[in-house]
Amino acid sequence: KTAAWCLFLLTLVAAAGLDYPDPAERRAAVLELAKGGAPASLAGLGKALRDDNAVVRRTALRSLVSLGKPAAATLQGALANEDGEVRAAALRALQGLQALTREQLAAALRDRDPAVRQASAQILLDLKPYTDETRALLDLAAKDEAPAIRELVAKAVWPYYKPTSLLRQRV
What we know:
There is one protein chain. The chain is mainly alpha-helical. It has ten helices and no strands. Helix 1 packs antiparallel against helix 2 (23-35), helix 2 runs antiparallel to helix 3 (42-48) and helix 8 (114-126) runs antiparallel to helix 9 (132-142).
């Protein structure tokens, strides 16, 4: 009981640190929260994902990833984060936890941030075997406005050409 009580107090103190004006102190609070483990720290880490400082948000995301499966629901919420790097990292983390849906991948391919679209395309390319749904999403990625994403898909799909696959684009 004493250890659980200490952990509870540590979580409360660390969560209070999320309101400090200094981003370095808020980041330190996030790191302390992560030491508490899930589920005690999930609410505080979810709050830190909405911090106005990018370093605090990304530290919170890395802390959530370190918690594994218990953090999946909070990571799902990170897909709507204002920070594109957080959204992209949340995609990769959810894929690693096998908690990412095809609908979320499709939505990520339409994201305003190229980093998110590229992460989504890379995840799609890593899925095996390719299904018709995967191929349709890869077709969408192959038409992306960002040349780097189009090139990523074209180079990855070209060696496995089949009539239903994408043709290599000539530049």
